[in-house]
Amino acid sequence: MVGWTLRLLVALGLLGSAWVHLVVWLDWARYTDVVGPLFLVNVGAGVVLAVAVLAWHHWLPALGAIGFGVATLAAYVLSLTVGFFGVQEQFRTQAELWGVITEGACVVFGIALLAVQRGRVRDGVAREGSRA
């Protein structure tokens, strides 16, 4: 039950981040040369990873979700500090807040999911085809 709950939380974080990036892309990012396409990559990657986390009970989708969250948060921090491909953010919109929350959820719950999966494998509970 814990594994399923964590999978759901990771998937919701991924889908939430994808949604935020789609909304921002529709608002202004589609008019930027580099950041616009990267926002669409984020949308697609978030959806694909969410499906993978829910459907493929393996450690790789959880690791992908963590990497997704870390990379997206790192790009956002760059945009707040030195700029990211000409985009300078100021952390003043609701979309920015929700982006940080959802990407943080990908990292935190992804790490927890990996820990649960590792514990089950270590204890000999997870077997091929099991639902960790």
What does this structure look like?
This protein has one domain (2-122). It is built from 4 helices and no strands. It has helices at 2-27, 35-55, 59-81, 94-122. Mean pLDDT is 89; it is low at 126-130.
Short characterization:
The chain is an all-alpha fold and 132 residues long. It has 4 helices and no strands.
- How many helical elements? 4
User: In terms of per-residue confidence, which ranges show pLDDT below 50 for 5 or more consecutive residues?
Assistant: 126-130
Number of E strands: 0
Please tell me the overall pLDDT: 89
Whole-number count of domains: 1
Instruction: Determine Rg (CA atoms, Å).
Output: 16 Å
Largest sheet: none
Transmembrane segments: 6-26, 38-59, 65-85, 97-116
Keywords: Membrane, Transmembrane, Transmembrane helix
Give a topology summary.
Layout (H helix, E strand, L loop, with lengths): L1 H26 L7 H21 L3 H23 L12 H29 L10
Helix pairs in contact: 1-2, 1-3, 1-4, 2-3, 3-4
Defining traits:
132 residues, single chain, 4 helices, disordered C terminus, mainly alpha
